[in-house]
Design goal:
Blueprint lengths: L7 E11 L4 E5 L2 E12 L2 E7 L13 E10 L2 E4 L4 E5 L21 E2 L2 H6 L4 E10 L3 E3 L4 E10 L2 E8 H4 L8 E12 L2 E5 L6 E3 L3 H4 L24 E15 L27 E11 L5 E7 H8 L9 H9 L4 E8 L2 E7 L1
Parallel strand pairs: 4-6, 8-9, 12-14
Antiparallel strand pairs: 1-3, 1-5, 2-3, 3-4, 5-6, 5-7, 9-11, 9-13, 10-11, 11-12, 13-14, 13-15, 16-17, 16-19, 17-18, 19-20
Length: 347
């Protein structure tokens, strides 16, 4: 009854995985019972939700079945009261992707190679070597910051579209990057992965990727990587005041991007603390054209470049603040988006 109007689909599958126990949820005063399958055929790997609990012991992993009159719900197939299920001869040449049962799926998505992530309908965590980096771009009247990167692993190369804080990160060629919670998407006729609100990027140490070669054929022919940076034309600003300056121990490993040391260890590579320092300052910068002031945080290399200091030689946060104050006012050009500065250049 509540399936009325849905399209019915009949398909044959080889069963790859089955729920270890019956699943259930409350619907009004009723308890709805079902189990999940990871099922594959020559066209791909899918999730099938079976509402026929009497079929739980009938369906076995590794065997093949014909599902007649299923309901297609997004990327999932539902076997309902009108569905018939019968055992058939073993299917051969099935396309098997690394896919978890829904109840076992990690919040950040299962770890998959790039090739599988591009074809899996569910979110994935991927890892690879950075090949291409697009300039930052602005969408939705300048309120949304977007950047594309391409990663390579042993399965191939994939473009990943990032938004907001992940797009604002600084990337470099040949870094090893892990990206969580990405989904496949077709954009302008090409397959890519796209980030979500829960996507996180983390630079990691992984010897499996260290010697992975990157050649000319790994560079994608994609206009996102060709268009000139639309944040290039900056405006003049002047820093008149520093409201906070903080110097902290950070990891010395290049791949960890000066990650702050916690509990005497790097939270990424677990390397113990040493004498490497990072810094963060909060400044008030005035637009020299409009006289509008912006409060923003600046980190590490931007601080050293704008103030012409080597903060590693400073003894403390107080020492850092004192030496920075001697440099005021500081003039620079930059593009400001959502109280953040891009392409900062000292004047």
């Amino acid at each position: 009854m509540f399936y009325q109007g849905d399209d019915k689909v009949s398909l044959s599958f080889k069963i790859i995985k089955k729920s270890s126990a019956l699943q259930s949820y409350k619907k009004g005063d009723s308890l709805v019972t079902y189990f999940n399958l990871v099922a594959a055929n020559k066209d791909g790997t899918y999730i099938v939700r079976v509402y026929l609990k009497h079929k739980y012991n009938f369906i076995k992993e590794g065997m093949s079945y014909r599902f007649t009159d299923m309901i297609k719900k997004g990327d999932t197939f539902w076997a309902v009261s009108t569905t018939t299920i019968g055992c058939i001869a073993p299917l051969k040449n099935v396309t098997t992707l690394d896919m978890e049962l829904p109840e076992n799926e990690k919040p950040e998505g299962a770890s998959r190679c790039l090739k599988d992530a591009l074809h899996c309908p569910h979110k994935s965590t991927v890892k690879g070597k950075v090949v291409q980096i697009s300039p930052l771009k602005r969408r939705r009247n300048g309120t949304l910051v977007v950047r594309s990167i391409s990663l390579k692993d042993t399965s191939g190369v994939a473009k990943i579209c990032l938004f907001e804080s992940t797009a604002e990160m600084q990337f470099e060629r040949d870094q090893i990057l892990q990206v969580t919670s990405v989904y496949p998407k077709i954009f302008q006729g090409a397959q890519q992965l796209t980030g979500s609100v829960s996507t996180k990027c983390q630079f990691v140490q992984d010897d499996n990727f260290k010697d992975l070669p990157v050649t000319e054929k790994d560079f994608l022919e994609d206009h996102d990587f060709d268009i000139e940076e639309d944040l290039a034309d900056g405006e003049p600003f002047q820093i008149n005041m520093i409201s906070d300056a903080y110097r902290y121990l950070c990891c010395s490993s290049e791949g960890c991007r000066k990650k702050k040391i916690l509990d005497n260890k790097c939270p990424i590579c677990s390397k113990e603390s040493n004498n490497t320092y990072g810094c963060r300052i909060t400044v008030e910068a005035e637009n020299c054209n409009t006289n509008v002031c912006t409060t923003a945080s600046l980190f590490n290399d931007d601080v050293c470049s704008l103030f012409s200091i080597d903060q590693h030689t400073l003894a403390s946060s107080d020492d850092l603040l004192y030496n920075l104050s001697l440099k005021l006012p500081v003039h620079f050009t930059a593009k400001r988006v959502n109280n953040k500065f891009y392409n900062m250049k000292k004047m």
